[in-house]
Amino acid sequence: PIIAMTANAMEGDRESCLVAGMDDYVSKPVNAAGIKEILERWLSKAAAALPDIPDSVPVLDWSRLHDYFDDETEIRDALQMFVDSLPERIAALQPALQQQDAEQLSMLLSNFIASSESFGALRLAESLQLIRREAESLGLNKTLNFADPKLWEALAQQTERLEKERHALSALLEQRS
Hints:
Blueprint (H helix, E strand, L loop, with lengths): L2 E4 L6 H7 L4 E4 L4 H17 L13 H7 L3 H27 L3 H17 L3 H16 L11 H9 L1 H18 L1
Helix pairs in contact: 2-7, 4-5, 4-7, 4-8, 5-6, 6-8
């Protein structure tokens, strides 16, 4: 969000700022509680909903698996092991979210994204990328651990998207068997 700050409050300043493309407005003198309220309002909106993944992104890119394995049995077995590991990997994100550990969350997401891409689970990888980008946009990185529990809670709810992608992968694997 873009929040305008003006030196003094004149009638019409707020409207002028909004017309100019600002998302919100605050006038000086500012206080910490007022700034916190505005930031929470806008950042909570940002964390509440991630964009949908385009339909053009496949659930699974079988060609990635063919890069590593020679026959269909090896591919199915490897993919089954990957799909079977997903509940545990998704659950592993929860402590980092609950403890508001931005560094741990970033590491887990990076590893999860890399393995998802290697296995050709492109929609899952994209979902993880969206969660990571959202966390980064909220300042949840190594240098700033944003303390608002509402933001972390909203981010944690996004892991439901990962379960949806896990079910889609399982369904594809069943069809291929």
